[in-house]
Amino acid sequence: MLSTIYAVLFYIAMAVFTVGLVYRIRLYARTPAPLKIPTTPAPVTRSGVVLRMAKEVVFFESLFKANKWIWLFGWVFHVALLLVLIRHLRYFTEPVWWWVKWAQPFGLYAGFALLGGLFALWVRRIAVERIRYISAPSDHLMLLLLIGIGISGLMMKFVAHTDIVALKAFVLGLVYFSWQPLPADPLLLIHLGLVLVLMIIFPFSKLLHAPGLFFSPSRNQVDNPREQRG
Length: 230
Fold this sequence. Notes:
Blueprint: H1 2-30, H2 46-59, H3 61-66, H4 68-88, H5 98-127, H6 129-134, H7 137-158, H8 164-175, H9 186-201, H10 209-212, H11 217-220, H12 225-229
Helix pairs in contact: 1-9, 4-5, 5-7, 7-9
């Protein structure tokens, strides 16, 4: 019964995540941007825009220029999250790809960096008055949700181990629609439950800044208003 409940919840969460994400991206893409409003100094060619977006996605260039401390915490969190997600790909593939095997130790200890970045960003929201003033309860709850996922994941590795083989069988069963028993470990159930909540609320939260960045007119426009007008 427990395995069936979690399997159904994962399909529901994936459907909400996928449909919600597609809907929001479609909405971004269809929103008109009639004015030229690139943040200067801005590139004057399309290749320059591509380079600018690449630096923004990989290095958070604008945040680095605005605030070095926030950039450090945010960049560490996002890089650590990427490594953690790569590490988790081993549950979805058989055989496991070589580069996923290679990333396993990095992904493991990136979990601590992920938590460090999250706690630093949360302290900032509490300690900095102007940030505290504009922070909504949902901002704190989102950070708490991510922290809960990180802590429960690390505890399964270093405190109370779960049956990794059975867990992988359960995940692969979801992928191939051949359900397998889910280990009934409390930490695992908490971890998966928090992940389900994150998947469901992601398309409707501020976390959607990830794909939204690509549709930002201040970043994705060529600085050529005179040429276009002419």
